Amino acid sequence: MSARRRPSSRPPRSLNVLFIGNSFTARNDLPTLVELLATATDRKLKHRLISVGGASLRTHWNKGEARREIDTGGYDYVVLQEQSTLPVKNTARMHENVRLFDGVIRASGARTALYMTWARKLEPQNQQLITHAYTSIARELGATLIPVGVAWQAFMAKHREPVLHDRDGSHPSLAGSFLAACVVFDALFRYAVTGLDVQIEGVTAEQVQALEAAADAAVAASR
């Protein structure tokens, strides 16, 4: 398994991760899909999800639950997922929201990870704006970038199936969430997923391999 490891000192064997977001994280239970990948590689993931439908990070900040949970300590990473259209409509506000959370995350001893989402099916041109919004704030803060949107874009440029968007053209299908989970796992555990024997309902083994390869390529390019 050592051949799969990303060039880095001591990739973690176990992580405790807090996910903060909305239905883009909650749909298909993304954290549990990441846990599935951890189990397949003899790693351990403990996780908690704080999700509010349609919420921005500012909504989470104002509600207070996420801040209180971060303050309890013990997390290795806090994964932040911004409301899907805010990086396009108001990048400055998105960056303000991330900076607010980054301060309390660092104070708790955890690291900030940014879950870059994807463009809506009928607005693929927005991916460039989303990518820039997440990449620029990640660089500013030294946060870990989880380039899910980049992986989606690359996969869809080469493959028509499996379909990554759900019927609403916004949320992820199970395959879309699996691709997201692969990117999250690779970025946080620093362990390439290509070649893992994982079964996903309605997705062929060949398609799983293509999804895994897209995830690894996106994470490698972002480092």
Assign an overall shape: globular
Round the mean pLDDT to the nearest integer and report it: 95
CATH superfamily: SGNH hydrolase
> Which architecture per CATH?
3-Layer(aba) Sandwich
What is the H/E string? EHHEHHEHHEHEHHH
Q: How are strands sequenced across the largest beta sheet? A: 2-1-3-4-5
Largest beta-sheet details: 5 strands, parallel
Description of the molecule:
The chain has 223 residues and is an alpha/beta fold. The protein has one domain: Rossmann fold. 49% of the residues lie in helices and 13% in strands. The chain is built from 10 helices and 5 strands; from the N terminus they run βααβααβααβαβααα. A 5-stranded parallel β-sheet has the order 2-1-3-4-5, sandwiched between helices. Strand 4 (111-115), helix 7 and strand 5 (144-146) form a beta-alpha-beta unit. The model is unreliable at 1-8 (pLDDT under 50).
Compose a concise summary of this entry.
The protein has a single domain, classed as 3-Layer(aba) Sandwich (Rossmann fold), CATH 3.40.50.
Q: Can you lay out the helices and strands and say which pair or pack?
A:
Layout: E1 14-21, H1 23-26, H2 30-40, E2 44-51, H3 57-63, H4 65-71, E3 77-80, H5 86-89, H6 91-107, E4 111-115, H7 127-141, E5 144-146, H8 148-158, H9 174-189, H10 205-222
Parallel strand pairs: 1-2, 1-3, 3-4, 4-5
Helix pairs in contact: 2-9, 6-7, 8-9, 8-10, 9-10
